[in-house]
Amino acid sequence: MEEQSPPEAEDDVTVAAGVGHWLAEARRDRDLTTAGVAQALHLDVQIVEALESESFDKLGATVFAKGHLRAVAGYLGLDQEEAARRFHASSGIGEDKLPDLIVNYHSKPPRERKWLVGGLVALLVLLTLALAWVIWTLVQSNMQARDTEVTAPTSEPEISEPEPTTGVAGSAADAQLAAVRDRLTDAPAESADPPQGTPVTSEIENPAPEPAETGAVELRFSESCWYEVRDAGGNRVAYGTAEAGLVRQIEAERPLRIVLGVADAVSIVVDGQAFEITDSMRRGRTARVDIP
């Protein structure tokens, strides 16, 4: 009687059955579909199907096939070493250490998070610098506007048209001086006690005009100022913008009426004597001065 050879070990037969069949049975035992496994691991369903059908050529390089196999086996609760042995037996690829290529699909890699934090910090710095530049620009604009502020208002209606002048500078001077005269039109009446050396005229008490006289009047400017001078007949004999340090001598038929854009910027000398600009002649920074 011939002796029967002993059957092969059961473990060897199981390994020979293939890793794909092993994965498919484990998936069916857990009542899962290939689409469900792929969705849970953020994989394409074709990768799970290729592993179960042992179509390893569809998985690309060996390192990718091993990585996908380990991810699926781990999700199904199977032993990682057993998955490696079955893969090498089924694929005919020599055994080597299975690389750890399992991707954490639920969080970004550390390097990507680092770049994200760095980008947010850089954006915050740029926004801070932009805000600081805007604030600095506004502050500089406000300071420049105050330095070049025109004291005469332009919103009040004009009650008289300026006399025609030639040139752009003359038109600007007319507009500014007309605005100053408008402000002074509503100025309160002069106080009962007039300044010394300044006679008070009254049309009621002295209906007859005083005889006209001429004499030197000097305007000395300590800073930039608009001004206008009219003689006894109401004719404008001098006007414009004077810079600091200018001394303007005016000889015209008196009494004179002088309108100043900045009263504190002008000193008046009449017949060699200083002439005081009193509070009753002022309205804000401007002044209307009558020289007898």
Structure description:
The chain is an alpha+beta fold and 292 residues long. Helix content is 40%, strand content 17%. The protein is built from eight helices and nine strands. Helix 5 (62-76) packs across helix 6. The N and C termini lie far apart (160 Å). The model is unreliable at 1-16, 97-108, 155-162, 164-169 and 198-207 (pLDDT under 50).
Quick overview:
The protein has 292 residues and is of the alpha+beta class.
Task: Walk me through the topology.
Layout: H1 10-16, H2 19-29, H3 34-41, H4 45-52, H5 62-76, H6 80-91, H7 110-147, H8 168-185, E1 213-221, E2 225-230, E3 236-242, E4 247-254, E5 256-260, E6 266-270, E7 273-275, E8 282-283, E9 286-291
Antiparallel strand pairs: 1-4, 1-6, 2-3, 2-5, 5-9, 6-7, 8-9
Helix pairs in contact: 3-4, 5-6
Summary tags:
292 residues; alpha+beta; 5-stranded antiparallel β-sheet; 4-stranded antiparallel β-sheet; 8 helices; disordered N terminus
Shape: rod-shaped
Could you list the spans in which at least 5 consecutive residues all have pLDDT below 50?
1-16, 97-108, 155-162, 164-169, 198-207
From the N-terminal CA to the C-terminal CA, the straight-line distance is 160 Å
Mean pLDDT figure: 76
Relative helix content: 40-55%
Task: Tell me the series of helices and strands, N- to C-terminal.
Answer: HHHHHHHHEEEEEEEEE
Most strands sheet: 5 strands, antiparallel
Which value, in Å, is the CA radius of gyration? Answer: 51 Å
Structure class: alpha+beta
Give, in spatial order, the strands making up the sheet with the most strands. Answer: 3-2-5-9-8
Number of strands: 9
